[in-house]
Write a structure and sequence with these properties.
This protein has about 325 residues and is an alpha+beta fold. It has helices at about 35-45, 200-210, 280-285, 300-330, and strands spanning about 1-5, 15, 55, 60-65, 70-75, 80, 85, 90-95, 100, 110-115, 150, 170, 190-195, 215, 225, 240-245, 250, 255-260, 265-270, 270-275, 290-295. This is Biotin-dependent carboxyltransferase family protein.
């Protein structure tokens, strides 16, 4: 069975954690923008973290569920509702066949994730379910989701109807995730110095760390263009194109910054001023146009410790979710 798109959203795609190992061929990793929220969405419904999820931007789509199923919604708060009744984020939720999920109002955040138990049954491209829009590959026919699309689910052996009370269109299961530490101080982003940091003038280095930068409306999954004080280099030397990654901060010729996001190119020739630490990429992914960013320099050891702590939290969470789900089903 499946879910059906009855009203398309702005940009809803099937994504996973991305395809690795193909940068040498010019194929970027892609995948979800908020890896933390996507992994938690899968954990809450008992999936492996590598399963595909649906990434939704506001205004989001409306979905009709063609079967009883277990879902979770994580990330941004778009006031998720099932048949006009609000449902909470970061919870597992059993929904009844023919229920409609929709997102009528933006509260905060930039993108949310919907996972279903078992995962979406879509084809892989280069070992990943992620939609590559430019290549027209991966995900659901290599494109964003449109009206009347039917997204099939993988087979489930759990009888979810038994968890629904008579007359109820959904049932929220009793465990949830506390995400306070991951999204704490959302506008404060830690970075480590890039290869060309020292090419900035002393004044520009100071400006970058003391001033706020605003995300430009033209920002997208490829990169966040930032508006702020013009930054200057000591010398205007040409650079050889080199590898870049999710979170690389480049200095454009006009003195403004761009932060590369999930669909970034594989190489770039602009100065790499810094790199957003991996543990703060989820916060960055949930910022919206016109939101402010304040950069803070940290060191590699701190960046590694924060990422390790975040991964340990995810490991504990995954075990706990499986135990709770097994207990409820049994």
């Amino acid at each position: 069975m499946s879910l059906t798109i009855i009203k398309p959203g702005l940009l809803d795609t099937i994504q996973d954690l991305g395809r690795t190992g193909y940068s040498r061929l010019g194929i970027n990793t892609g995948g979800v923008m908020d890896r933390y929220a996507a992994q938690v969405a899968n954990m809450l419904v008992g999936n492996d973290t590598l399963e595909a999820v649906m990434e939704i931007h506001f205004p989001g789509a409306q979905f009709l569920f063609e079967q009883n199923t277990l879902i979770s919604i994580t990330g941004a708060d778009f006031t998720a509702m099932v048949n006009d009744e609000p449902v909470p984020l970061w919870h597992p939720i059993v929904v009844r066949k023919n229920a409609v999920l929709h997102f009528p109002k933006l509260q905060h955040g930039s993108r949310c994730y919907v996972a279903v138990h078992g995962g979406y049954c879509v084809n892989k491209w280069l070992n990943s379910y992620s939609t590559h829009l430019k290549a027209g590959a991966g995900g659901f026919h290599g494109r964003k989701l449109e009206k009347r699309d039917e997204i099939p689910f993988k087979e489930s052996r759990i009888y979810f109807a038994g968890l629904l009370k008579p007359g109820k269109e959904f049932e929220v299961l009793k465990w949830h995730v506390d995400t306070g530490s991951t999204y704490l101080h959302p506008n404060e982003i830690y970075i480590i110095k890039g290869n060309e940091w020292d090419q900035l003038t002393c004044q520009s280095q100071q400006d970058m760390l003391e001033d706020n930068f605003t995300i430009h409306p033209f920002s997208d999954r490829m990169g966040y263009q930032l508006k702020g004080v013009d930054l200057k280099r000591n010398e205007r030397t040409e650079l050889v194109s080199s590898g870049v990654s999710f979170g690389t901060i480049q200095l454009l010729p006009n003195g403004q910054l761009i932060v590369l996001m999930a669909d970034h190119q594989t190489t770039g020739g602009y100065p790499r001023i810094g790199h957003v630490i991996s543990a703060h990429l989820p916060k960055l992914a949930q910022l919206r146009p016109s939101d402010c960013i304040h950069f803070k320099i940290t060191d590699i050891a701190t960046a590694e410790n924060l990422l390790i702590a975040q991964q340990q939290e995810l490991n504990i969470l995954q075990r706990a979710c499986l135990e709770r789900l097994n207990h409820v089903v049994c």
